[in-house]
Specification:
single chain, NADP_OxRdtase_dom, AKR_Detox_Biosynth, 8-stranded parallel beta barrel
């Protein structure tokens, strides 16, 4: 039985003209005050072949730190080692406002972009994403702010996170540059992008897909229910065949989809970060891939 195509060594970030690694490193839990330890994590990601680094202005409060803390910590790392910035495709997000909860007005997006650049000590980011859709902002208004930031050289490409297909299409209507990426939650336990149109839109419009929580919020690492255990067992079989970890098999299952989703690996352990290349080793047949899908669905496909 023929195998699905292997992961690419590098791939385009949609139509942005930017090339990125097939796996990203995420900084949701990038926290603390130890710059040396933080730098070690960034350098471990580079050692693992990662070029795409994903953060957000809201990363901080979940770790008991202030709004913007993750970006600030990265800024301290880059101030100490400026050469790291030249090797990095830097992505961040904004639009979540504590207590609001979402805002994408032109004034707010402009201020959020400027604040992120200041915290990280950079002049621009390669990808800036609206983190969550604000239902009270007309997409034309949000598009105007993003276009202005792009023209000013503050952002190289525009992406959306947690947006529906129709929300993405509405925003795209008012942009003169393409939306480069979707960032949905996607894993062997979170299958929505396969059926809600996100993967289809990404392929039709040549958008990158950045998959957040690729381990199902930790449920694949420590399965506790029958569904998770069934999926984990199939991933373990694949992992054993290629002498890699279950997590590597879980990432590889994501990457086997023809939309070429990019898993955002969230581990903050440098040793585990260095294991990221394991995810490019497993190969999937259609039968193997669909077996995982059906185990997650809890039913057979028709």
């Amino acid at each position: 039985m023929s195998e699905l195509p292997a992961p690419l060594a590098s791939q385009p970030l949609g139509k942005s003209g930017i090339t990125v690694s097939p796996i990203a490193w995420g900084m949701w839990r990038f926290a603390g005050d130890d710059v040396r330890a933080a730098r070690a994590k960034v350098e471990a990601a580079f050692e693992a072949g990662v070029t795409l680094f994903d953060t957000a202005d809201i990363y901080g409060p979940d770790n008991g730190e202030p709004f913007g803390a993750s970006e600030l910590l990265l800024g301290r790392v880059l101030a100490e080692a400026p050469s790291l910035r030249d090797r990095m495709v830097l992505a961040t997000k904004g639009g979540i406002v504590m207590g609001t909860p979402y805002e994408s007005s032109a004034a707010y997006l402009t201020s959020a972009i400027d604040a992120s650049l200041t915290r990280m000590g950079v002049e621009r980011v390669e990808l800036w994403q609206i983190h969550r859709p604000d239902m009270l902002t007309h997409p034309q208004e949000a598009a105007r702010a993003l276009e202005d930031a792009h023209k000013a050289g503050k952002i190289a490409a525009i992406g959306v996170s947690n947006h529906t297909v129709s929300q993405t299409a509405a925003l795209a209507t008012y942009l003169t540059i393409p939306i480069a990426s979707h960032q949905p939650e996607f894993s062997a336990l979170k299958l929505n992008p396969l059926s809600d149109g996100v993967m289809d839109q990404a392929m039709a419009e040549d958008m990158a897909v950045l998959a957040w929580s690729p381990l199902g919020g930790g449920r694949l690492a420590a399965p506790a229910d029958e569904r998770s255990k069934a999926v984990a067992a199939l991933l373990d079989a694949k992992a054993a065949a290629y002498e890699v970890s279950r997590t590597a098999a879980a990432y590889s299952w994501i990457m086997a989809h023809p939309a070429r989703p990019i898993p955002i690996v969230g581990t903050q352990n440098p040793d585990r970060i260095r294991e990221i290349p394991q995810a490019t080793k497993p190969r999937w047949t259609r039968a193997d891939w669909y077996a995982v899908l059906q185990a997650s669905m809890g039913e057979s496909l028709p």
